[in-house]
Amino acid sequence: MATPSTPPTTSAALTLLLTPDNVADTTLTTLAGEPLYTVSTLFHAKQKPVTTLMCSDGTRTASWVWRVNSDLLTLGARPEKPAATWLHSSWVPYVRTMRFTDDAGRKFRWEGFSPGGRPQLFIEGTPQSIATFRPYPAALILDSTADGVRNLVVVSFLLLERRRRDEARAKEARAWGRLVATGYSTET
Fold it and tell me: Does residue 2 lie in a domain region?
């Protein structure tokens, strides 16, 4: 039996490569090089950044305004609301599990977004992951079960992965700040 930390054993229905490996500005392409999604972020001088996810046919899948606590998310034609109302965290302390529900009422959970973790998406109550993030080269691998909710998988992944990367950069900056404060120097 597979555990939540093992990669999917079913055949991958789709591999989405992030080119470049930047969740704020990238193209998600198939292994054959076919672009399926474009992610672009506008950084305004006096406003918060806004990320837009577009399908290859030109339709907007989602957009979100970056905020400290919870981005303001617009999924399709739905009204804008805090992302945390759709993609919410576990109530268990020190457990980095994020959950969302699709329009059919099916519940999904992301695990592995903690430092050093391997992000994987599960249908609630099942041990088999339906999507996994592979960091090198950056790719989101979806099995055939995820096909019907692919847009939601991609949106939730991009929101969570940007947050995870921001937290990792902040942690690294704090570590460098402590080194500098103690008199550490890279100069010889």
Answer: no
